[in-house]
Amino acid sequence: MKLVLCVPNFSEGRSQDIINAIRAEIEKVPNTKVIYCKADSDHNRLDLAFVAPIKEAKEAAFRATRKAAGLIDMDKHKGEHPRMGATDVIPFVPMGNTTMEECVEAARGLGKRIGEELKIPVYLYEEAATRPDRKNLADVRRGEYEGLKEEVGKNPDRKPDFGPEKLGKAGATAVGARMPLIAFNVNLGTSDLTVAKKIARAVRHSSGGLRYVKAMGFELKERGIVQVSMNLTNYKKTPIFRVFELVRREAKRYGIPVIGSEIVGVVPMDALVSCADFYLQLEKFKKDQILENKLWGEKNEGS
Amino acid sequence: MKLVLCVPNFSEGRSQDIINAIRAEIEKVPNTKVIYCKADSDHNRLDLAFVAPIKEAKEAAFRATRKAAGLIDMDKHKGEHPRMGATDVIPFVPMGNTTMEECVEAARGLGKRIGEELKIPVYLYEEAATRPDRKNLADVRRGEYEGLKEEVGKNPDRKPDFGPEKLGKAGATAVGARMPLIAFNVNLGTSDLTVAKKIARAVRHSSGGLRYVKAMGFELKERGIVQVSMNLTNYKKTPIFRVFELVRREAKRYGIPVIGSEIVGVVPMDALVSCADFYLQLEKFKKDQILENKLWGEKNEGS
Fold this sequence. Notes:
seven-stranded mixed β-sheet; Alpha-Beta Plaits; homodimer; Formiminotransferase-cyclodeaminase, Chain B, domain 1
């Protein structure tokens, strides 16, 4: 069974009726499981995550988009978070043995259907992007709903991948595919913020570090320590243990110890298993040796 | 949902018809999943593993025992592996948030039912044992089928926990509860077997080492190296990383590097997660942060 994690965001964080109606559309589709559903009233935004086999995930995301288009009027929407549509973004994230290519295909298929059947302009982004200038969601969403409404149909750079060159009250939707993001912070035994900032610069991609690391230095004032706060955007290519060891080595150069680390929010199992594999120096370890994988892996497996 | 792993062994490793019939009894019970089924013709023994919710696991094990009793005649059984019954052992192993206490309860409930309904003598062993001299399976099975048949009814020490004091053609069955066993080997960068033997003695319980470690030193002749070969009998109380670090430290005393390790067979996910937790020095990591656990954990969870 090829599973994906789908994390759609909707421009409604206040009306519980609308939130429930959107969630219900997803849960009506068999084999979907909502694992996260959090509305923020300041952002006026609903952040929802569900897991399903690819086909059902596409269907559930389509139904939720249709429902949101009927209930949310972007001409009346206000909220702190950048947004351009009633269903603002729909990223597909590979799980288990699902590939990124399959998620890209899912995003493009869903985008086409939303464009054609719901007449909502769709922009493909991240791994599903058809143009390099649409990889980054912030670029796709530039000007937000109001700005895009003005530009679309005039500026050819803003022609959607699917759907009409015109924004209705449901706005536009970004549909894409991406790796799961891991929020990983390393705490240092010093109160000197400059050390955390130097290490952040050393390890992050933008200033010459590891390819899939974003990093900043922060103070944790209550504890009197500093932290290298990171987002790992592709844990398969830049694994947690390599990031951790690089931070530790850089800290050592200043004589500073690593006193702990933290993973904020959700992490895929294999990101942790790869750390065990690395530190235990395992030879030829296979994922199907994990008891739980025998249960939750492929169906109809032989034995 | 409280899951258990159940690993019954049957005294039949040659007749595919009998093997299939026993397996079918287990698979007939809803929500059971056979994850391993391997017959050894020299041992003349079937090693089977399945996962199920506790109630279904008891039912499936009962039906398999009944079927084996009807098909296997211990008076005619020959095989290298020690055995005392058609269904020789039935251990329950906790999974996920299932406790050892729940497995002990399952073992005792199943043992009672096998004794009463099938008239097969049942001995409770390991964590389910009611007497200290029955903790160890080898002690329970002493004399095997033939020896026990002679002794039972005469020697009060061999009175079964449930069922008659008399062995029929189905023999007797040991029913118990235990932690999963992890086969973990550490490879050393030397051909000197005495080093592996010394380290095995240092880390194993029997000679003063860690509580839940059995260890021996071996040569891997093809590779020209030696290995500390271990069984970890309770990875929650004696975790893999602690064993690994102790072996590494002892090897260092001889100037020998650890060049790799291996996990043979199946390992529970949380045994690996605890290694990631240790080496990454994670603060306050919770198992429900693992994406897969959100899917496969408790049903009806809130979000």
